[in-house]
Amino acid sequence: MRFSLLGATLAAALCLCMLGAVQSFGVSGPALSAFSPSRTPLCHRRRGNSMTNAALSLRAQMGTEDLSEEDKEKGKALGAAWIKNDKVNECKQALQGSSIYLFGLPGCRSKEIGLAIARRLETYRFLDVVEVMGPAVGKPEFVTSDALIKELGEEDFRQVETAVLDQIQGMVRCVISCDPGVVRERMNWSKIQQGIVVKIQADTKQLAFRSGKSEEDIEAMEEELKELMEQADVKYTLDADDMPLDALATGVLESILGTMQQNPPKRKEWEEKHQQQMSEWEKEQSKKGKKENKGFGK
Q1: What is d(CA 205, CA 93) in angstroms, rounded to the nearest whole number?
Q2: What is residue 20's three-state secondary structure?
């Protein structure tokens, strides 16, 4: 390697401190424990908010005679906004501080949506893994995966990614945007599974248009990574190009909440899957080490 991995790890930690990301050293076990049914009930809402929502929606739907059509529409919009806000608060409570990892094929807008989600959750901070990686290896001018991979090479890029994820995985209340190739390295994939993993997907034309890549390149990457990407906890599809970011962020949060409500026992399944992946990775590393050491001592 052209740089020290330990140095990259320390530099990544420094970059994260400068960004103000708070690390929690008191967290034990996967952040997916938020899916545990023993947690605070998901339906816990502040009474005032729910009552206000109901009153606003009811008034808008009834359409009293003293309201103009414009006022009725404003009432409906206000009621809908309150309901969305209530859903976001419910999701925030259900998350219990768990971090959210976003990834998808190039053009999926994970960074933009991640920023919007962090703003929506208010107490969460946004981090882009690649933007931390650049300064960590003394290359702050490289802010995209393609540019950094071209500069470092795929193997070194993934090792720096590992160093950065080592620092991030112990953090709580973060929304993290990852490079789509994070799933290529079993160790890195296992690290992001310490949080709630969301795959953002869209049709090939949309992704190609936004990323500047050809549809053939997008399809080839999807074919290569499809099986691994399907292991994401939540999948969210971008239906239209013109949807406001706030609406997309709310949609992702509602998808997370829906998954948590419908699949509370999944936590055990995910933990077992994580342990299995780690075991397989360790076996692979052990075999690789034996091959490299073959013939030594002769």
Answers
A1: 36
A2: coil
Q: Which tens digit of pLDDT belongs to each residue from 19-61?
A: 554 433 333 333 333 333 333 333 333 444 544 555 555 555 5
Least confident of 18-22, 122-126, 151-155, 256-260: 18-22
- Write the CB contacts of 290 (distance below 8 Å, at least 6 apart in sequence): none
- First vs last C-alpha separation in the chain: 28
Q: What share of the chain is helix, strand, coil (3-state, %, to 5)?
A: 65, 10, 30
CB-facing half-sphere around the CA of 295: CA atoms within 13 A:
2
Cβ atoms of residues 169 and 70 within 8 Å: no
User: What span, in angstroms and rounded, lies between the C-alpha atoms of 228 and 216?
Assistant: 20
Cβ–Cβ under 8 Å, residues 171 and 21? yes
User: Nearest CA to 107 among 209, 176, 228?
Assistant: 209
For 177, the enclosing helix (H) or strand (E) is strand 174-177
Q: In whole angstroms, how large is the CA radius of gyration of the chain?
A: 22
